[in-house]
Amino acid sequence: MATNFANLRFYRWLSSLVLVLIAGCDSQGTASLSENSVIYCSEGTPAILNPQLETSGVTIDATAKQLYNQLIAFDPKDNSIAPSLAKSWHVTKDNKKITFYLRQNVFFHQTEYFTPTRPLNADDVLFSFNRILDRTQVFHYVSGGKYPFFQSVGFAELIESIERINDHTIRFTLKRADSSFLANLATDFAVILSKEYGEQLIKTNELEKLDTQPIGTGPFKLKEYRAGSYLRLMPHDNYWATPSSLKQLIYDITPSNTGRLTKLLAGECDVIAYPIAHQKITENPLLTLESVTAMNIGYLGFNTTKPPFNDKRVRRAIAHAINKPAILNTIYKGDSAAEPAVSILPPSSWAYNDNVDTIDYSIDKAKDLLEQAGIGSDLTLNLWAMPVQRSYNPDAVTMAKLIQADLKKVGISVKIVTYNWQEFLRRLALGEHDAVLLGWSADHPDPDNFFSPLLSCASAETGNNRTFWCNETFDDLLQSSLDTTDMNARREYYRQALNIVADEMPLFPIAHSKRFQAKKHNLKGNILRSYGGISFEGVEKH
Amino acid sequence: MFILTILTFSLSFFFPGEHLANISGQINATPEQLELVALEYGKHESVLYQYWYYLNHLFQGNLGVSMNSQLPVADEIMSHLPATIELTLVALFIAMIAGIPIGFIAAIRHRKKTDNLILSFSMIGYSIPVFWLALLAILVFSIQLGWLPSAGQISLVYEIEQVTGILFIDILISDTPYKWQAFNNATTHIILPACVIALAPATIFVRLARTAMLSVLDSHYIKAAMAKGLNTRQIVFRHAIRNAMVNVIRDVGLQFANLVTLAMVTEVIFNWPGIGNWLIQSIYQRDYTAIQGGLLALSSFIFIVHILTDFIYASLNPLARGSKHAS
Amino acid sequence: MRRDNIYTEEEFPSPLAELWQNFKQSPIVMVGFSCFAFLILFSIFSPIISPYSPIENNLDHILLPPAWHDDGNVSFLLGTDNLGRDMLSRIIHGTSLTFGLSFVVVILSMIIGVIIGSLSALTRGIKSSFLNHFLDVILSIPSLLLAIVIVAILGPGLNNTLWAIVMVLIPQFVHITRNAVVQEFKKDYVLASKLDGASSIRILHYSIFPNITEKIISQATLAQSAAILDIATLGFLGLGAPIPMPEWGAMLANGIDLFYIAPWTVYLPGLAILFAIIATNLVGEGMKHALKMQREN
Known about the structure:
Largest sheet of chain C: none
Mean pLDDT of chain C: 83
Shape of chain A: globular
Strand content of chain A: 15-25%
Radius of gyration of chain C: 23 Å
CATH superfamily of the largest domain in chain A: Dipeptide-binding Protein, Domain 3
CATH topology of the largest domain in chain A: Dipeptide-binding Protein, domain 3
Helix content of chain A: 25-40%
Number of domains of chain A: 3
Oligomer: heterotrimer
CATH architecture of chain C: Orthogonal Bundle
Number of helices of chain C: 10
Structural class of chain A: alpha+beta
Distance between the termini of chain A: 56 Å
Radius of gyration of chain A: 25 Å
Distance between the termini of chain C: 27 Å
CATH superfamily of chain C: MetI-like
């Protein structure tokens, strides 16, 4: 008996020794490879790896500034327009002709599936924009044939022609002056693809690979993508600016908020998107919490094609019944950066105007309106809450619960619906929802970016306008504003447009907020950007 | 097995939506394509024929494409199932080497303090909800102590090509210069989820082993051995353990089904890229083709393990062999 | 009730009464049993006992820690969650959802299972053997997996979860009833009443059921602990009770996002589940033990 126990003890001891050994080896081991690898724990799975086709932040974060470059970019310091692939540009006096002079010796990615034979030239730029504009181009209808951002700003109607002047000069001719044109080209969506790669794909008849196995000029190139689990990027050694010093950049797709924080605390991630429990991060000496003032809006959008929500009285009634201060206190608590939204425009926009109509919290008004609209007590609202965290809405499901409780007071029962992000967007575009908690982050400083992509008729067609609301007066106002460069006139047009929104209530603005991110101390460099997606260019690990 | 296929086939009728879409996963197909699929699955013939076509597809390894990702379900299963097999086998191993000896000790010290203590602990272990245990384990071992990683199969910095799908084998046959680092890293990743899964089955093994050992110790040949004057140690090690083990092995198969269920839930929490995690994600997305395929794969896996343990039992125990032939 | 025994007659307690006699001998089991009874009372009277509404938000008091904590508030004994809902009230209400419903589910599936089981015990031939094989397959699939699949068919929701678990538990009862009935039928006293000309149904009712109840009840306690776990797990996976409902598993899942700022939202529902399962298992264990004693006597 005694030896039996002694044996057992011995085994225990042995097994614990093995454990310690393994753990010991590991802590020395990973260091050597992970020293130069950055793991970014992201919040969702990119649906496709080409930002031309998507406006979802997940796709933009993963691709736009990593795999690709645009002709021009926003300077991260002052948000002015800065050179990127175009080293300079020239705009004619009438604002109708813009000529870009391309940088020499910009190389595309060399990967297992593609080897470029020539540097970037005007053909590639032409190819990239023709994909969006030219319905006869082979790639136009590949991957759905929808270009939500470009369609929402009316890109096709704006461009008269794009000409190749010589190998490194390209000229855009516009039908009319557009004050947001340059800003639109500097957004994450206007990426430059490789024409040579496109030709290779035509030969092998694998057209859809243009968007799933992308080739760009960006600081990183694609190594491996497993939807739902990870995205592995390698540095692009021939990058035209300074090549990255990292060995790998990995997007570890972790939709769970707690999961991301756990991974950060356990040291499995270097950076995490949209952290929760900020206090936990700030009190940890190894971690830093960063934030950037992002131009965004979190809103409750109604599906204006579905009865009874096609009746503006019902929409207004619901808006009256929502206790916005309570939502702000609960959802954005601790992240004091959030402020209640008066309209869809954040205060940091130059067109901001607090002299617009708003809707106050009043259960009585809500009940009156519902009565006028002839709604009994049996109205059920399918409220879709987005499953990912966004700065403008850090916890849509909890927000939905609050709204559920609010609307119960006026006799509307709310069913909360949620799917994974990809599926959510797909079904949303089909219009399966009654109302949805969503938001929008601006891609450039022009206020039009809050109007056209969100609420114009054109974007209702592409499904980016999830309210499917289409109002001609409103669209005309937007157009008039784009036609002029007079700031005061534009501000007035936007004020009128906002009043139409407040009256029609296709969406109920809730809050504007900062974008947060948490990272380890040893990671240097600016990842967050005020506009558009994150960037790992120039990030170093020490 | 046969009934299983009927079951999954009939599932495609039960699920909401179009039967054809459910079984093939083609949701965005044009009418012409749909017609082609209809022909392929014998849509225009009787249900029996349709079932026959379904079986044919199965044998060709064609389970349709996932409604969500539009990738072939069979491929998805092949990339996820090995991770589950790996996890469950390790967990089973842990449950057995921890549970059986403890059960034997309890039996030898029958009705003494040790026995009672072990029984009470096994009762608690058996009652803990696995998802809660997993969360607590992460909190203690990953966050507070920082010993073990909290999620995934291996740190993503290691790039391991998937060949067999069983990560440990893949690492060993890969040509990465960081082979041993990767191996250690994978080991630390599997410890926590495997232990969490193993806890409940281990407590069951404790009970099984205890009961088996008690009945063996009660048998005549042990009494005879005792009468001959052999000491306890000799009796236990030479005679009792062997015979008691045989009885425990018989129930391993049954426990395995339990283990797989626990693994499904645990995979979700530990973000383990296994079939349970994948199946539950498919349910969230109402991906019916994937659910059917995943269910079929998972049940067949359990079934195969059942048969395997039956064989092992038979080969270990001549008595069982005899009775099998007799029936 | 006092009973005057005029004759020195040896009294044979009914099998059930005998079971109870054996059952109450072990103190630990009795502790489990009183916890079990306590939970049943809780689940019946939960709306009366609980101090606050379990689903109403109270935004003035969000994320309060339990009362024994420095920042705690005595009027919220176990603290509040991120919407200011009192944890104690939610847990008490959760008793009727998780524990109470599992009880209902078990009884429902027991009734159906016993009926099917005894009918199938009376039939022979292909039908019976098909049923047998069918049951074998069903029993080999883990109950949770099966429940998940049924929920996948019916769609998530509490009602569907309950039906799924009922369906999952039925085969176990069919199996055990069938075996027990077949076994009893072979015994001599059944033969005796058969010779008296009693019909099968009559035999089933008067001779067999009283003798197999204890087996079925013992199975029911096992089924109950499985049912609690299944309801909670489905709730946790977000396939069970819908969002505002204070079902323990769903509460736990809801608490995960608050794990680092309000750990009690995770600890408490987990403890509640653990407590309910241990109580049920203790009762089951005691039942098993008592059955064994009965057999040995």
